[in-house]
C-alpha cells in the first residue's frame, strides 16, 4: 500500500486569533499522527503564507487538508495547490457561515470560505446538519466523519482519585454558549455554592471572567489541546458541567446543531462524569443516567442535577465507568482515522 504524503494547512483560531485553531489538532493532526504511527501516511503542517509552487513541487504531496479556513492567504494557497492538480480535502466541524451574537467568531469572510470549498476536491463534515448546510450553499455532498479521541494517548494508568471536597470543572472556548438561560445558570451555581461552601469550580477558558463576579471560581485560563486532555486525565474533579443553548433558543439552532459532542469525548475519556444541556448534539450520543446526565436549561434542573451528583457518589462512579467505556469503544481515534484514510485513498 502506498504511503501518502499529506499536507495540513495551519490557521489561527476563528474565535481567538492569538492562538492556533484547536480543530486543526482534534480533526486532523491527531488522526494523521495515529496513521503515521501505523506507517500509513507521512504529514507536515505549513502556514498558508509559506506555501509556494517550489515547495509543493519539491515535497510532492498527494493530498492537502484544510480545516475551517476562510482567509485570503489560504484561498491563494488553495489556488496554487489546485493548479498543480493536488487533491484538496476541506474539513468542516462548525457552521462558519453564521456565528451567533455571543461568539467572538466572525462570518465576514464567508465568501472566501465558500470559494475555498468550491475549489476543494472533497468536503468532510462532522454531522448531518453540517452536510445539509453544505448542500444548501454549494449543492455538494460531503463525507461525514465524527470526532474521535486518542484514548490510549491521554489516559493514565492510575485511576483518577476524587478530591476530598467537591470540585467541578467547566471548559469553554470563548464566551458562554447561551443567551436567555445565562441568568438562571449563574443563579444555580450561586445557590449551589451557598449550599456547599467548600465546593470548588475550575474554569478553562480563552476569555477571563466568563462566569462574572458573583461566582467563586478558579480561572485556569487557556490550554493547548494536548495539555488540556492530560490535565483532565490526572485531575481530581468530581464531575464536569457543559451548558449549551438548546430548544429554548431556537435562533441558535443553526449554529449549535452543527457543533460536535467533543466535550463528551474529553470528559468520558478521563472518566469524569458530566452534566450536559439536553441539546441536539448530545441527545444522540449520551444515554441519560448511564453515560452522562442530560438536563433542561432552567435554574431548577441544573440546581437539582448538580446537587444530585455532589451527593450521589455511586451515580458519579457509574457514569464515569460507562462513559469511559463508551468513548473507548465507540469514539476512539481509530474509527476516525480509518475514515480519513478512506478519504485520502479514494
Structural summary, described in words:
- The chain is of the alpha/beta class.
- 41% of the residues lie in helices and 16% in strands.
- The chain has helices at 22-37, 53-59, 72-83, 110-119, 128-138, 151-154, 182-195, 225-233, 253-256, 262-269, 280-283, 299-311, 313-330, 333-345, and strands spanning 4-9, 41-46, 63-67, 87-92, 122-125, 143-144, 167-172, 200-205, 218-221, 239-242, 274-277, 293-295.
- Strands 2-1-3-4-5-6 form a six-stranded parallel beta sheet, with helices on both faces. A six-stranded parallel beta sheet has the order 9-8-7-10-11-12, sandwiched between helices.
- The radius of gyration is 21 Å and the shape is globular.
**Arithmetic mean of pLDDT:** 92
User: Ends: how far apart?
Assistant: 13 Å
- Oligomeric form: single chain
What CATH architecture label of the largest domain applies? 3-Layer(aba) Sandwich
CATH class category of the largest domain: Alpha Beta
| Helix-strand string | EHEHEHEHEHEHEHEEHEHHEHEHHH
CATH topology assignment of the largest domain? Rossmann fold
Estimated radius of gyration: 21 Å
Strand content: 15-25%
Number of strands: 12
- What proportion of the residues is helical, as a percent range? 40-55%
How many individual helices? 14
CATH superfamily of the largest domain: Glycogen Phosphorylase B
The main pleated sheet reads as:
6 strands, parallel
Helix and strand composition category = alpha/beta
